[in-house]
Amino acid sequence: MLGWMILPFRRTFDFRGRSRRLEFWMFSLLVWLVYALLIFAFIGSGFSLDQAIGAGDQGWLVLVPAVFSGAGWLIGVWWLITLLPSIAVTVRRLHDRDHSGWWLLVAWITGPIPLINMLTWLGLLIVLLLPGSPDANRHGPDPKDPTGADIFS
Predict the structure, then answer these.
(1) Residue 36 domain flag
(2) For the segment 122-153, what is each residue's pLDDT rounded down to a tens digit?
(3) What is the CA radius of gyration of the chain?
């Protein structure tokens, strides 16, 4: 299980080929578990939402020392560490469905458009949840059966 979680780190610069759902979702689980741990550390570092709300319009000033504390920096570092592997595994996952990896860029470009953004990301999520194409496609062999099913045909 841990092997699937760290595989995208080993394939950070590999934007070709295909990735199984298991690889994508295990990596996503790892990323979000570490985020959860860092957020708990962030909360434990003295950040108080009550102070931010009680300060009214100046509430954002309470966030500044908390964000630049140790846990705040760690969240930023973790984001930087996982950014490129996340992009690469998502592109390979799109390839597994025989879609272009450029669809991820389309999802990012629609970011400022509220309703279109939501629909685009929902569509992307659905594509990422669906199983990959069963045979070889234009992006490579099936990662579940790399030898191919056409051996005896």
Answers:
(1) yes
(2) 999 999 999 999 888 999 998 887 666 554 44
(3) 20
Whether this model's pTM surpasses 0.90: no
Given its phi and psi angles, is residue 18 left (phi above 0), alpha (psi -120 to 50 degrees) or beta? beta
Residues 145, 132: Cα–Cα separation, whole Å: 11
By percentage, how much of the chain surpasses pLDDT 70?
Answer: 76
- How many domains, in total, are found in the chain? 1
Domain containing residue 37? 11-129
CA distances from 64 to 35, 52, 57, 100 (A): 19, 10, 14, 40
46 within a domain of the structure (yes/no): yes
Residue 50 pLDDT > 60: no
Q: Is 92 exposed, middle or buried (0-12, 13-18, 19+ CB in 10 A)?
A: buried
